[in-house]
């Protein structure tokens, strides 16, 4: 994914972001503000270079007022913009995915009020401020830590709000796949929220604030927690690894590519109009059968994936970013990249050009009575149309992916994620008030 981590201060000046530059709002008069406690980095901040952040100053009652925040805490992502945050934002260290169902009797009016509250809360927290009401102080001493909050609508939302005519065709339910072992209680939902941050307390603070804002209008249907490697944990920027130890995301489309927006975002001419500049998120809880996987030799694991475990390079040779030679054979005439290798099957040129922007989190929810880890991938992928993105790729994986023996799809959801909110708007306003 493209590096979008240019320096920014906790004051909301231009920095790491994936949306338009807009100054974060000031809190109400007299309200407690984490942003105010952090001081003004613009006056004394130190630019740390293209991959760093600007220094802020923690001013908690017992803190040393001269101690600067690290770039990790000071990095800010803008709430307002053409697209919602959390789509092209670089991977964050901590994530929460949560789905809500509207409460009985709640309809379009209540949903609009909820999205207005949620948007206000997201804007404040992403700017490093406290929530407007009953802030829990969980993130009192922290900077924004690249917090993002992203909102989407599920298929059932439109019937519950009387907006069936505005439901996109692309939001039709996903077909059944042979690898599915879905728990319906942990799938779908009227509303979906994705939260990401580079600090666990900042992420939890946002999760709690969103849940409290929903009181009376919506209730939690399911919630999942994920993580990634922390920024700065490696000596140089690297593609993430999953819990199988594999480099994961090498062939992600990049914003620098000319057709990136076409693949990921609904075009300005798209239908319905309220989804223009938005995207569709497919969410899958994929259990990794790690005990079985770890019994394989490294060589066998590499044959399943089609890439070297240590470097991510294709088995046909080169480095991680070298194009895979699908026709290369060994001395015996066998294909170097096995015909059922995961990397072969998922290549866009093997799927009619279908491409996904994968932005997952790993998860580990403990161990079963038999000691088997409940762990794997919270798979989140973004595309302009899931019927041309996720669905054809998953159908092909169903027909012979070597990795299928080592994973199980346990939950699923598809959500329409509208474009970003302009200043003065809330997310989804064009749908709910159009």
TrEMBL record:
Organism classification: Bacteria, Bacillati, Actinomycetota, Actinomycetes, Kitasatosporales
Protein known as: Deferrochelatase
Subcellular location: Cell envelope
Gene behind this protein: efeB
Protein species of origin: Streptomyces fagopyri
Record keywords: Heme, Iron, Lyase, Metal-binding, Oxidoreductase, Peroxidase, Signal
GO biological process, one term: iron import into cell
Statement: the UniProt record of this protein carries the keyword Lyase: yes
Cofactor: heme b
Cofactor note: Binds 1 heme b (iron(II)-protoporphyrin IX) group non-covalently per subunit.
Catalytic reactions of this protein: heme b + 2 H(+) = protoporphyrin IX + Fe(2+)
Biased composition (Polar residues): 1-12
Record SUPFAM superfamilies: Dimeric alpha+beta barrel
Domain Dyp-type peroxidase C-terminal: 239-421
Domain Dyp-type peroxidase N-terminal: 84-228
GO MF, any single term: peroxidase activity
E.C. number: 1.11.1.-
InterPro entries according to UniProt: Dimeric_a/b-barrel, Dyp_perox_C, Dyp_perox_N, Dyp_peroxidase, EfeB/EfeN, TAT_signal
Any one cellular-component term (Gene Ontology): cytosol
Similarity comment text for this entry: Belongs to the DyP-type peroxidase family.
